[in-house]
Structure formats: structure tokens, C-alpha cells
Specification:
Blueprint (H helix, E strand, L loop, with lengths): L1 H18 L16 E2 L5 E2 L2 E6 L5 E5 L4 E5 L5 E6 L11 E7 L2 E6 L4 E6 L4 E5 L1 E2 L5 E2 L5 E2 L6 E3 L4 E3 L11 E3 L4
Length: about 180
């Protein structure tokens, strides 16, 4: 329950920051939370990542239920997508999430890849695999930035640049070098 409250608070702060940017010294007021533990619509089992689109819709990775859930800005459940598996559009412990324009990037940690969707949840493409070479993740990717282009595998202390347009290899560089 604590992680659900933390997720709701983080989503709320993110929404507040997007709607009303304020100086760093100004604190925002608590406004809203949603969700409970479970497997139903609007329920979570280990929520992890939050992203907000240009319309205020909130996308949440639900690691324990192997899905992404989508809510409107008031916290009303809209739809979910994904499900357990390793096929296109399926997840095994989705973690990080980011939106860039009309594209949604989901870090599919358990399948050692990143998947790209449109904002309606339709699968577009994927890249990555398990390993230590270019285009591979040692322990599963952890994070994708808001551009959808920079990936971090913290355990291997590596970052990955954007994939080539043809989904060729992603060059890897040491996270300590930027």
C-alpha cells in the first residue's frame, strides 16, 4: 500500500509540476491519489514508473501484473495493455516508462528490452536482448529518459545511445563518461 501511495503522490506532483510550474522553494499541496493493491482495473501489484502525456493522461508500469495502466488526470482508469509473456507487446516486469511526442517507451526489464508503443497502447517495435555486447542489457534495462532515447542499465553501469533507425546495434558507453 505504501508503494501505491508513493506512486499516486509522485503522479500528482508530476501533474502539478506540469500544470503549474513553481520555484523550487514553493511546496505543492496534496490533491489526489488513486489505486489499491490487486489485479483488477486501476489496481496495482508493484507499480514502478509514471509518465504523463500532453493531454494529462497518466501511464503507470504495473510490474507485478505485467502491464501498463492508463488513467486520466483525475485518476479514472481508461485502459491497460500488455500482459505476461515475451512476445511483442507483452511484458515481464515492466519498469521505466517515458513519453516523447506520440511515442511511449516501456522498459521491459525481465525480457531485457525496450518496447515502443503509440499512446493508444499499440505495439510499434522493440529492441534489446540479454548480454554484454552492443544493443544488449546485462541485467535488464532500468530507465529510459523522457526523449525515449537514452537507456540505463545501472547494474552494469552502462548507458545506451539511441538505436539506429533500422534497429541496428545501440552503441554502449560507460555511464561515468556521460
Amino acid at each position: 500500500m505504501k508503494s501505491i501511495r508513493s506512486l499516486a503522490a509522485a503522479a500528482l506532483l508530476l501533474l502539478t509540476a506540469l500544470a503549474c510550474p513553481a520555484p523550487a522553494a514553493v511546496l505543492t499541496n496534496y490533491v489526489l491519489q488513486w489505486g489499491s493493491q490487486g489485479i483488477g482495473n486501476g489496481q496495482f501489484s508493484d507499480p514502478a514508473g509514471v509518465a504523463v502525456d500532453f493531454s494529462g493522461n497518466v501511464f503507470v508500469t504495473d510490474m507485478g501484473n505485467d502491464r501498463v495502466q492508463v488513467f486520466n488526470g483525475l485518476g479514472v482508469w481508461q485502459f491497460s495493455f500488455g500482459g505476461a509473456g515475451s512476445g511483442p507487446g507483452q511484458f515481464r516486469r515492466p519498469y521505466g516508462i517515458a513519453i516523447n511526442g506520440g511515442d511511449l517507451y516501456v522498459v521491459d526489464t525481465g525480457n531485457y528490452r525496450v518496447q515502443k508503443f503509440n499512446l493508444a497502447g499499440s505495439f510499434l517495435l522493440q529492441w534489446g536482448s540479454q548480454g554484454n555486447g552492443d544493443g544488449q542489457f546485462w541485467s535488464g534495462p532500468d530507465f529510459v529518459d523522457s526523449s525515449g532515447l537514452r537507456l540505463v542499465d545501472r547494474r552494469a553501469k552502462c548507458c545506451f545511445a539511441p538505436p539506429a533507425p533500422d534497429l541496428g546495434l545501440m552503441p554502449k558507453h560507460d555511464a561515468r563518461s556521460g
